[in-house]
Design goal:
mainly beta; 8-stranded mixed barrel; two-stranded antiparallel sheet
Length: 134
């Protein structure tokens, strides 16, 4: 089973929560989540702790992984996107940070998500540890 860790690097702001995703102790990509809004459905990042993630088929995003057992929440997925408006409480994976229309964003997300799913092709379940270093 792959070791997956999301490390939140910056204090949350109105552009979102930015971090990096490590797979087997190596940085794989950058991440974007909503700001911390006390774990409110569709508008908040999830609390930092360990979760189990399960392969699912999303009607919107296709095959992906869902973060399970988040208190009071469901359908928290890994998927592609660029800005805060692209996530409803989910984790966006991308190649690097940047700007779109003057706002902070994550870029080259579609290709990065595709590589992530390729790396996870033999996994149906993995554990995700979320930590904060700000």
């Amino acid at each position: 089973m792959k070791v997956v860790e999301l490390i939140r690097l910056e204090d949350r702001n109105h552009y979102g929560t930015f971090g990096v995703l490590k797979i087997d102790k190596e940085v794989f990509c950058v991440t974007l989540e909503p700001p911390d809004r006390l774990n409110r459905v569709n508008v908040s990042c999830i609390p930092a702790k360990q979760y189990r993630c399960t392969r699912v088929m999303s009607p919107t995003f296709g095959e992906t992984f869902e973060v399970m057992n988040v208190p009071g929440r469901s359908h928290i997925l890994f998927h592609a996107g660029n800005v805060l408006a692209d996530t409803a409480g989910c984790i966006i994976l991308a190649q690097h940070y940047g700007k779109l229309a003057g706002d902070r964003a994550v870029l080259n997300s579609g290709a990065t998500f595709h590589v992530f799913m390729g790396m996870m092709q033999d996994e149906n379940i993995f554990h995700l540890t979320i930590t904060e270093v700000f």
